[in-house]
Design a protein that fits this description.
Elements lengths: L2 E6 L3 H4 L8 H17 L4 E6 L26 E5 L10 H7 L4 E7 L1 H14 L4 E9 L8 H13 L8 E4 L1 H7 L2
């Protein structure tokens, strides 16, 4: 299986906040482990960056940049998006086809928006998805702490079978062991 690691919206404008997203340091460390493994196996790494004019996520601005601490290599691919769906009106699908990718490992920010939407869209595009259960995050919500948002999406997305391909929530360490 040739997979790509798709890292969603790990950007300064979303993380340099008070408070920062849930388990930021741990999530970054797990993403770095995932991307290092992928590169060592010749699998592509894709960093998706959200942009919105007139906001902290304006293209090219400081808030649009990836957060420090992420291990980004020159060989990594960057995709710009303007909706929660990393496939919609982007070149992500062509990037994946050009590299003969047949499965996705998805992680990043924000669990309940761009991660959720991209997982569902990836499955709709026919890609089996490994949602790295402890490598996506969000901020606490008024009605629910981020840890429960993440847990809810891990459980809910794993139950979605209607696309005809599996969506599997798996811990980072488990994914790394299965890809050895």
């Amino acid at each position: 299986m040739k997979y790509a690691v798709v890292v969603i919206d790990m950007q300064r404008g979303l993380f340099e906040t008070d408070p920062e997203p849930f388990e930021t340091a741990e999530v970054v460390a797990r993403i770095n482990a995932l991307t290092a493994r992928a590169r060592s196996q010749g699998n592509p790494v894709v960093f998706v960056q959200h942009e919105r004019q007139g906001s902290e996520l304006a293209f090219g601005g400081a808030g649009w940049e990836l957060i420090s601490g992420l291990a980004v290599q020159e060989s990594d691919i960057k995709v710009r998006k303007m909706t929660p769906d990393s496939f919609l009106r982007t070149d992500l699908e062509q990037v994946l086809k050009n590299r003969d990718v047949d499965a996705l490992c998805i992680c990043g920010y924000a669990t309940e928006f761009c991660v959720d939407t991209t997982v569902r869209s990836a499955a709709a595009h026919g890609y089996p998805v490994f949602l790295v259960a402890d490598a996506h995050t969000t901020h606490d919500k008024e009605h629910l702490p981020a840890s429960l948002v993440r847990d809810h999406h891990n459980r809910t997305l794993s139950d979605v079978t209607s696309f005809g391909v599996p969506i599997t929530a798996v811990a980072c360490e488990t994914f790394l062991r299965t890809e050895e």
